[in-house]
Amino acid sequence: MRDKIINKAGELFLNLGFKSVTMDDISNELGVSKKTLYKYFSNKVSLVDASCATIHESIEQTIDFIKEKKYNAIEEEFAIKAIFKEMFKNAKDSPMHQLRKYYPEIYNKLMHREVCMFKDCNSDNLKKGISQGLYREDIDLDLTTNFYFTLIFGLFESDVYSQDVQELVKVEYKVLEYHIRAIATEKGIEELEKQLKIINEN
Q1: Residue 89 has what pLDDT?
Q2: Which pTM does this prediction carry?
Q3: How many whole angstroms separate alpha carbon 81 and alpha carbon 77?
Q4: I want to staple 71 with a disulfide (CB 3.0 to 4.6 A). Which of 12, 76, 89, 145 is the partner?
């Protein structure tokens, strides 16, 4: 039952926002009493925390699965980006924005996990891309990872961008394109254009 509650809560939080969803909403969706929820979670904060941890683990597992598929480095980046597009497909406003605003401690904890995962994942991707001749050999791995990290995570930290999730997803794809164009070889640009064409056709 605990896992069932976490999974349903996570789904609602991502689609409707961490602040918007109440314990009543979760109990109604599950068809159980609030007493049952409180048997496993003393309050909403503890449920938000558990849901965020589960969502992060799910993302990590999916990224590992994608890496096992032996895509080239640029295909891999677009496949990983598609995870987040799918995850937020039913959301309107950014759940991350609500999490940052209303549950800052949980947000910071989640971001620490995400940063570690992101940096490891991006560093591996850069090394793979260089070995495949898709990225230039002269790029500074740490600096390039930090540049990309700053751009991606800046979307959630800044008030410059719309909090409409679908708009944020579009901007994330633009950031990915910007990142790859900055480091790609001629061969890499050809692969990038191929991936962009696939995206535009979908």
Answers
A1: 84
A2: 0.88
A3: 6
A4: 76
